[in-house]
Amino acid sequence: MTDPAFTPILLYDGTCGFCARSVRFVLARDRRRTLRFGPLQGTFGRTLAAAHPELYEVDSVVWCDGLGVRVRSDAALAMLQYLGGGWGVLAALVRLVPGSLRDALYDAVARRRFALAARACLLPSPDERARFID
Question: Is the pLDDT confidence value at 13 over 70?
Fold first, then answer.
């Protein structure tokens, strides 16, 4: 379980339409409404990369919580676990697959993400906007 004092943060590629759609997916299913969002290119994303040099070349989703920083399929599974319900069950099942295979599939989708969805601006509602960080 994550540290309750640390609000989880999902960082995404702010230039990617597929990523914007993914954030919309999470926003629509986040019953707790405590998850925060921010672009990798924002202030928090750059600050996090400075503290974790292994993130400098990362252009995937990044999950930050009280347990640390996770990327690629581990980040996506942490997000599903956070959503809970059937999504948490799905995350538990997918965790049975070796990480190298999960990441290979994640990377295959990530390489095609710009072709999967047109570039789009993420326009959160005023209520959702309070959950975004720069």
Answer: yes
Count the neighbouring beta carbons within 10 Å of the beta carbon of residue 1: 7
Which residue pairs, CB below 8 angstroms and at least 24 apart, start in 93-99? 99/73, 99/74
- How many domains does the chain contain in total? 1
Q: Does residue 75 belong to any structural domain of this protein?
A: yes
Q: Which tens digits make up the pLDDT trace of 87-113?
A: 999 999 999 999 999 999 988 988 877
Residue 2 has pLDDT above 50, yes or no: no
* 53 alpha-carbon distance from chain centroid: 18
85: left (phi over 0), alpha (psi -120 to 50) or beta: left
Residues 115 and 121: their CA atoms lie apart, in Å, by: 16
- Boundaries of domain holding 110: 9-121
